[in-house]
C-alpha cells in the first residue's frame, strides 16, 4: 500500500504497516481505525491536516506539508510485521524518500518504524551516527538531510494504557515541525 499526503511534504510520518482492519480495509494508511484517529487528530492540531479524522478514502482528508507512509506495505499475519517483511519492503520507503525530496523531518512511530527509516537511510548512502541511534519516545537523530524524531506508536495498546498521551504526541510533532521549518 502506498503512502498518502502532500508530494511537497517537509514532514514524513512513518508507521509500521497497514492495519488489517484499518488501512488494509480502506486502502489508505492510518485510515478507518483508532490509530489513524489519533494520528490524524494530532496532525490536524499541528496544522498538517485539514480535518481531525479519516474513515475512508475520499472522505475529504487532505494533508498539507506532510506525507504518511509505513515500512511494511501489506497487513502482516497477526497484524505484527517481522524484520524479514521490513527488509523485503524497505525499498518502497527508499523510493518514497527519493521522490519526497523536500522532506526535512521524519517522525517514526515506534521502534520498528525507527529501524526501518535507519535501514532506508543506509540504503540511500547516508551514514548513520555511531553509536547507532536508539529508539525512545522523543529521541532524535540527524540522518543525512533529515532530522529523525521518535514517538511511541499510536496503537491502542499505547494510547489506552496512557503510555502515549495526546500531549506527548503533540510535543514530538512540534519538534518535527520545527525541524522541517514548517
The structural class is alpha/beta
- CATH class designation: Alpha Beta
How many distinct helices?
6
For this structure, the quaternary state is: single chain
The share of residues in extended strands comes to 5-15%
CATH superfamily annotation: Uracil-DNA glycosylase-like domain
Q: Write the H/E string, N to C.
A: EEHHEHEHEEHH
Explained architecture:
It is a single chain. The protein is of the alpha/beta class and 182 residues long. It has one domain: Uracil-DNA glycosylase-like domain (Uracil-DNA Glycosylase, subunit E). Helices cover 36% and strands 15% of the residues. It contains six helices and six strands. The chain has a six-stranded mixed beta sheet with strand order 1-3-2-4-6-5, sandwiched between helices. β5 and β6 form a beta hairpin. The radius of gyration is 15 Å and the shape is globular. The relative contact order is 0.19. The model has no long low-confidence stretch (mean pLDDT 89).
What does this entry show, briefly?
The protein has helices at 23-26, 34-45, 83-99, 111-123, 156-161, 166-179; strands at residues 4-5, 11-15, 66-70, 105-109, 140-143, 146-151.
Amino acid at each position: 500500500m502506498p503512502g498518502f499526503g502532500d508530494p511537497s511534504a517537509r514532514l514524513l510520518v512513518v508507521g509500521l504497516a497497514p492495519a488489517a482492519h484499518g488501512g488494509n480495509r480502506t486502502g489508505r494508511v492510518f485510515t478507518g481505525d483508532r490509530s489513524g484517529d489519533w494520528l490524524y487528530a494530532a496532525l490536524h492540531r499541528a496544522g498538517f491536516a485539514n480535518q481531525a479524522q479519516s474513515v475512508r478514502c475520499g472522505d475529504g482528508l487532505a494533508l498539507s506539508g506532510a506525507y504518511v507512509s509505513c515500512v511494511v506495505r501489506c497487513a502482516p499475519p497477526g497484524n505484527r510485521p517481522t524484520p524479514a517483511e521490513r527488509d523485503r519492503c524497505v525499498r518502497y520507503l527508499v523510493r518514497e524518500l527519493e521522490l519526497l525530496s523536500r522532506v526535512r523531518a521524519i517522525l517514526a512511530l515506534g521502534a520498528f518504524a525507527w529501524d526501518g527509516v535507519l535501514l532506508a537511510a543506509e540504503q540511500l548512502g547516508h551514514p548513520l551516527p555511531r553509536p547507532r541511534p536508539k529508539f525512545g519516545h522523543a529521541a532524535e537523530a540527524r540522518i543525512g538531510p533529515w532530522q529523525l524524531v521518535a514517538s511511541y506508536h499510536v496503537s491502542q495498546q499505547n494510547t489506552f494504557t496512557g503510555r502515549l498521551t495526546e500531549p506527548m504526541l503533540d510535543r514530538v510533532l512540534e519538534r518535527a515541525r520545527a525541524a522541517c521549518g514548517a
